[in-house]
């Protein structure tokens, strides 16, 4: 039986020390790093994302960093295609692959399918968008219930976007949501031909709190406000995902006069702390079985590799 090639994946919450550990492991193993961070794809978003420095990028080849302008949209489908190409190219060079990052939706693509590949005709999408505007959300939910006698499962019926997407898929396929969900779960992931070895890096609560505060202070001292001001001038707000990122949204509020400078550090720290809490919950409930390494431990990340 042919042995599957390996993808090493290192994840963990924001400020847990992933960059340093990844660089150390990759240098010693001759590996190349594939970013799994939904913000590192944006050019110019450097300070607020703690993007690897020029010196760090020079130490180890990196992929999927600085792909698009901040005003441009980027999604998981684009990420999966780019990551697949990068992983394949690294493999052809005979070098190990190390995926690094904590963006849950992107990370999940290495373990589960991310797209049902259902094609929705533009005319249908336009029809439902118009109905939502005229008839309201309740009318679309009512139609969904009619089309789904077996129930709507966990669908958030208060979320217009999710209701629209669900109704589009039911109308386009003639199938119920439970059927579509079962078919989706049966699909292989985009990386099913690889063995994925996952390690999660974490910190003790007091250590991580100190690292979050130090991280935010470093960003502000490095010129985060000027970075956001510059990006705002070239269309940052045209992309809600980029403009809404922690560090960027708080500075935009500052620039708009909605927040005082004195409150900036504390607000970014609080929001980063809240993000870490969400990340930990996601890791606990969504990741497959994996190895946990605590910050400061000298253990080899990937045992036997």
H/E element order: EHEHEHEHHHHHEHHHHHE
Output the radius of gyration. 21 Å
Q: How would you describe the shape?
A: globular
Strand content: 5-15%
Provide the fold topology:
Blueprint: E1 6-11, H1 18-29, E2 32-35, H2 54-59, E3 62-63, H3 76-92, E4 97-100, H4 104-108, H5 122-135, H6 137-147, H7 160-173, H8 177-186, E5 195-202, H9 205-222, H10 224-233, H11 240-243, H12 248-255, H13 264-286, E6 291-294
Parallel strand pairs: 1-4, 1-5, 2-3, 2-4, 5-6
Summarize this entry quickly.
With 305 residues, the protein is α/β, with parallel strands linked by helices. It contains 13 helices and six strands.
What does this 3D model show about the protein?
Strands 3-2-4-1-5-6 form a six-stranded parallel β-sheet, sandwiched between helices. With 305 residues, it is α/β, with parallel strands linked by helices. Strand 2 (32-35), helix 2 and strand 3 (62-63) form a beta-alpha-beta unit. The two termini are 20 Å apart. Helices cover 50% and strands 9% of the residues. It has helices at 18-29, 54-59, 76-92, 104-108, 122-135, 137-147, 160-173, 177-186, 205-222, 224-233, 240-243, 248-255, 264-286, and strands spanning 6-11, 32-35, 62-63, 97-100, 195-202, 291-294. Helix 6 (137-147) runs parallel beside helix 7 (160-173). It has two domains: 6-113 and 189-294, P-loop containing nucleotide triphosphate hydrolases (Rossmann fold, 3-Layer(aba) Sandwich); 122-186, Orthogonal Bundle (Histone, subunit A).
Labels describing this entry:
305 residues, alpha/beta, Rossmann fold, Histone, subunit A, 2 domains, 6-stranded parallel β-sheet, 6 strands, 9% strand
């Amino acid at each position: 039986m042919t042995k599957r090639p390996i993808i090493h994946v290192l994840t963990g919450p924001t400020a847990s020390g992933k960059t340093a550990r990844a660089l150390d492991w990759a240098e010693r193993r001759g590996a190349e790093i594939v970013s799994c961070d939904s913000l590192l794809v944006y050019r110019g978003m450097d300070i607020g994302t703690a993007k690897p420095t020029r010196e760090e990028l020079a130490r180890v080849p990196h992929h999927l960093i600085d792909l698009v302008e901040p005003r441009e949209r980027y999604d998981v489908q684009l990420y999966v295609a780019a990551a697949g190409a990068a992983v394949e190219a690294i493999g052809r060079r005979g070098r190990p692959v190390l995926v690094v990052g904590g963006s849950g939706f992107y990370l999940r693509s290495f373990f589960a399918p991310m797209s049902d590949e259902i094609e929705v005709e533009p005319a249908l999408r336009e029809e439902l968008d118009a109905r939502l505007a005229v008839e309201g959300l309740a009318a679309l939910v009512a139609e969904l219930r009619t089309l789904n006698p077996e129930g709507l499962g966990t669908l958030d019926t208060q979320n217009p976007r999710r209701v629209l997407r669900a109704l589009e898929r039911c109308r386009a396929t003639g199938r119920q949501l439970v059927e579509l969900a079962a078919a989706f779960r049966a699909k292989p992931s985009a990386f099913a031909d690889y063995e994925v070895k996952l390690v999660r890096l974490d910190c003790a609560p007091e250590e991580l709190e100190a690292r979050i505060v130090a991280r935010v202070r470093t960003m502000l001292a490095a010129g985060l406000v000027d970075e956001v001001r510059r990006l705002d001038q070239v269309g940052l707000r045209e992309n809600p995902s980029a403009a809404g990122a922690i560090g960027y949204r708080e500075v935009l509020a500052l620039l708009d006069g909605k927040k005082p400078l004195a409150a900036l550090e504390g607000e970014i720290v609080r929001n980063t702390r809240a993000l870490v809490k969400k990340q930990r919950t996601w890791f606990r409930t969504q990741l497959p079985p994996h190895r946990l390494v605590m910050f400061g431990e000298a253990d080899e990340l990937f045992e036997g590799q």
